[in-house]
């Protein structure tokens, strides 16, 4: 398919604009003008429609088929939430309106959405206060680290370092580092959970925070999490919860109850907002009482008369981390999702997500190496170790799944598992779909023994083959 | 409704395969003592109830005021074709294109989007998007710091105060020195800027048009900055630079901006689109994802994520940035917008904005007691001085159906009587006329 | 804007190939004397102007009244998933599936839709859709006439008066005898019906629930009709027959109906969906397209238009019907609706309708002076008698935000005080309560 | 792909409904209830989404690529018109509202749309009055025939027959026949237009109407149309214009000016409303003054105060032919399209449609037989006569185009051309797209000589091969 610019023909336009209706033409002094037009393409509306329709057909989404991308929680994105987000009262609302004098009354519906979402996230996670501002998970991590830095600064603590398990997602060390901390990696033990002894050896007065996800990226829940919290708090280190894996534990475990101090949630994972081919997402951050004063401004408050208002008066706040109130359109969808679910629905979500993952793991354990063979949570990590003996890598298996109409799991992550394949089925998948995946994986395992070359050639059914 | 497909019977079949007799058993790693202390949420709603609930909330928002509020975020017209294309579920229900063979649609679109941004800014490399214009500006500061090894940043007072506040937050703990240079009569103050430049400075940050709507040619400032080994960064309004001197033409090393004006709904502040372009030599310092063209095993062209060694999932704590999920779908919207408008259309939007804004200026200038700040040229936004507090005045105008502008006192303590008025191509002569009439009437009250 | 892609230069290149030097030459077959005497239309509008214009027109429609008007066309809830699927452009920008290899999506969907209709009615064959419930009923009459060779049709007075008017129009010139048998206490009058049946009658047409909302078991009527060699046709409300006795269970030969209630917006009267199902022996008399399963050259299953020899493009003046374009996209909507709701969901909708309508009955019964017609059982619509003219009363209720029902006087001259009230699953207890309170208040005025 | 019913699993549901909120449960007497549920399928919302998304991907629309289906005017369907049709004020409006006392004021916007569309169609076609009621082209034909029957009845004429050219679309004879007329076919002459001598021989006092399209289905304009009108009117036969080909002549010719008495237009062709895989369309009917009183009711009138109202008081009307006011949603889109275009735009539409067709014809005339080689209008008819010598049929060419990513033209119509291929490019196609088609057609013509078997095997790129 040709690049859009190659289709351009001088003189075409894909949209009609109104004639100028004011009796006035203003000429900007040419010294401010560019010498040459930006060479945007020149196409008819139909050409644009065809180009992007054709591009879309070279893509694969949750609506196409099974998408068990580990750590990404590719669940169904309800269509009604798109409809809600496109309601004019939300989509056309200028974010500066509530900052006008008397402007608060202009946006009560939108402020209610953000306030109520933050309140509900507190209940789901056991935290005391939330901010909806962070615009993705990693942005939440950074915000959390900035809050932690502000806390220590305020207390006069001299903290320079953050401890992070070796299995952690790359954003964790990166966020800590960008917030100005040194990062120390803590090993995972033979059971696939944090090595407590190593943690105890590494922690010190310099330690600003420990950053964790639980279940971790191996899909395993750390039952000793209370212990970890105790160790952290002994040194006044703050315990950070990466909420990317929240889909495993709703109604079963709340980070706040286990004494985590800060956390983020990925609304585009657990709370079903569509991932958009890479974003936008939203990564609201929750904190315990002692950190609330450091949350970014603005914050939304509910007044005694039931109205909502912006409040900027938090002198210890870390300040602005987003231009406004976060990725409002995403928060709106997530709020709609939570209201659809209710407490019982969210609990069923986690129960079914965990059951689906265990079902996949148990169905495949005789065909693939399972590095930590025990009950997993919402995802399971397999390894292509056995297949590697025949020269078949995780990537070959991934590409072979593509030819069977299935999106591959996350491969080569977590880094600590050789030839890792991280399968997260999510709760919205049916047993029939899981069986389709399981059968494909079994068939591939067999081919890995009998005809490994056929797997190296995959994919053959896609618009392009393996790319450099 | 919980969108769960499996039935009780299927669940029990699956439990059998897992070798347990209840779902509870699967959660036995979670100690009883850590079970939720409470889990009280409103009861689940049906789709009809949900829709009714949000229709009521949406009606509580006054999105239908005649809007003259800008401040970096504009009420531009959005062609219907954009919504109809981005709602193709292959685009919007896909993850980041980690499997390129299944993601050529997203990848090619992002590649083309990057090309748009390069052509618009005149610079050579761009990325797959950043969160918003403010974080993009911060990422540019980080690029400058890491490129120059210096830790002082000069920020022009014409840079959006929201972004200046964001820079303050992000740098607060990083021993970076942020120096803000106030504008002079709404324009970059060359004298103060130049005297702030030194060998220890990493970069100067400018904006065009600046927050007061004023346009400028920053070439002289860039030249001076370069003479100190500094980088020069410009935050731009993409519609405006379709006709204004491009960042590259002024010599800038990095351009960033908010892409909301390119077909993305205002949506109460997000999701928006941070874009960035830079000169080629900075490509390895770029934050975020970059899509490039390559070939497959038989030489067929395709697109992939490239230069991933800069990114957090490979480099972890040594990455150029921590960004992972970005604003891909907003970038797609912007790309479709630019493709529909095209070379001529985007200039036509710019020129409609300019003409209408200047017509508004004329009309408002005629109101007794109102002063239009005219010492500097403007694009589609301009500053006026009222005989009364601008906030109060805008507050009164709400009753007449107007969001009449943004009172500058909110960010500039000495400008309580100043009002910033934005006019896009959507405002008609009639609406501009009404604005002027109503403003005059309100001032007489 | 005229959505034309070619540029002047391309046009002149093309003219050269055509061997002419101007477009005008291509129109030289049109005599000068026949050139348009006038061609005055409003000037073309840009997309933004167009949207603003229609937003204003749309606001002039009171679509937000609390709606208790039915009359065969109902305000049911439409799941968002339907819009998101039918807006896939591969569906909605395709023509009739003349090239089956490029149309398997439409063909399979229609095949499945036909199956839905068969399962709902209990009958064996269905078609790809007809224009609406009224024309479907007329087509059923034609089937009966052509099957029996007789030209008299008995129509029950409970059949929607709109459809009865349509039957009158269509048969006016065709020496077909239409006999209408008035209802008795809102129900089919067996005595009059039976005495109208004879050996010269082609069919009897009934409706369930009938226009007064009354449900019935027509088995006895069908049996009697069959004894005269007549066919029996029933027009049905598809939501209702998810729980009511199916046409097949009552012995009907043909079932037709309006499919609007199956996920199709009210849209001021169209596009709607005429559906039809019939017993197998009538399949060659069916009007319109029929999709069937078949295999390709290597035995792979696929779907095609079948029995095309009945259709006008092959049979011309001898075709069973002249229908060509039908309501395919509405049939797709209905199929998606039935697939989403499914076996349980559609019954749940039916039962919500029944419960709420009967709650409304109870509430309204309690209003002094109002009489609810209770001699016959009803589904989600029922008739009440007011102490005043129902039209006037409904007119007053508009000011209180209600479309309170349909005054029967419009179609039944002796029923000026009668009001037909429909209650769907969308009406809440609160709204029903408000209706009752307001009706009582208005009657006291 | 499996049939949806095969995916059904008992107990699933794809949508959530509200709980019953009234304190009331009514049980219908079981004698009225069905004994067995209708076996609709039982699926999750995600399953439904995937099923129909996958089905859509087996379809081809105008948004996919070139769609030169002759007689169907597959032009671009502007997206903004879909947005307008979905505005709540239109989509949620109950059609009985304007029939309530004081109800007229409730639907002024909708009544305006229909009234103004009818008025504009009069101007475009030169007719005196229009009704928007007919729900498709063929429905318009039937309505027109019913009006003609009513007219003759009213005058006491005894008319039994309608004359129709042999090249006519099948709906014409079928509609005439269903309206109660006998149909006589009139031959086409060697120039591809109506044989006037044959017409004069066939016409008689019995003739109720002549039904024509101009340009006809061969894409040729009949310059003697005035003559035909004169012949018809001599016998008080009414001249019917099938407007399916209106895309050729806007701003260039108006049927009304050439004394046509009745006509329909296909909004889903000329006026860009999407065809929906077979419908819905709309076929408004226009008439001259003398037939206006026979138009179906209701009719919309504009009162002197500028408001719109329904009027049923036309005693000679043929009555109701639709339940309400026609396919309103389609009329709305067409009205939006016309307002976008204006007079200049519509004229350009026809000019470009005709140019595109002639360009295709001239580019292919050396490769395919052109039965009537002269300037065509908006479509051209080719024949596979030459290719047939090598055993290659029009259908082989059609299927071979499919493998080249292009929708075939209409084949085997009109019936009077052997191995007909009727190409209607429409004005929204670019020269580049036409060239792509022309190149494919040339390539196929070459293969028909060199490798005819390869064409018999087509298509090979589709989900299924040639079907029985
Ligand atoms: C465990 C974990 N943490 C953090 C992130 C980062 O989230 P985001 O992509 O929203 O920035 C991810 C995303 O994949 C993740 O899986
Ligand atoms: C020439 C001609 N007349 C009439 C019709 C019938 O129109 P419709 O399909 O809208 O009923 C068609 C449709 O293909 C046609 O091409």
Tell me what you see in this structure.
The complex is a heterotetramer, with 2 copies of chain A (about 475 residues) and 2 copies of chain B (about 450 residues). With about 475 residues, chain A is of the alpha/beta class. In chain A, about 35% of the residues lie in helices and about 10% in strands. Chain A has helices at about 45-55, 80-85, 90, 110-125, 135-155, 170-180, 195-200, 225-235, 290, 330-365, 385-390, 395-405, 430-450, 450-455, and strands at about 130, 160-165, 180-185, 205-210, 240-245, 260-265, 285, 300, 310, 380-385, 410, 420-425. Chain A starts with about 45 loop residues before the first helix and ends in a 12-residue tail after the last helix. The longest helix of chain B is centred in the last third of the chain and has 38 residues, at about 330-365. Chain B is globular and about 80 Å long. With about 450 residues, chain B is an alpha/beta fold. Chain B has 14 helices and 15 strands. In chain B, strand 11 (about 370) and strand 12 form a beta hairpin. A 7-stranded mixed beta sheet of chain B has the order 2-8-7-6-5-3-4, with helices on both faces. The chains are: A alpha/beta (about 475), B alpha/beta (about 450). Chains in contact: A-B, A-C, A-D, B-C, B-D, C-D. Chains A and B meet through helix 1, helix 2, helix 3, helix 4 and helix 5 of A and helix 1, helix 2, helix 3, helix 4 and helix 5 of B. Bound molecules: pyridoxal-5'-phosphate (2 copies). One pyridoxal-5'-phosphate binds near residues 72, 136, 138, 242 and 283 of chain D.
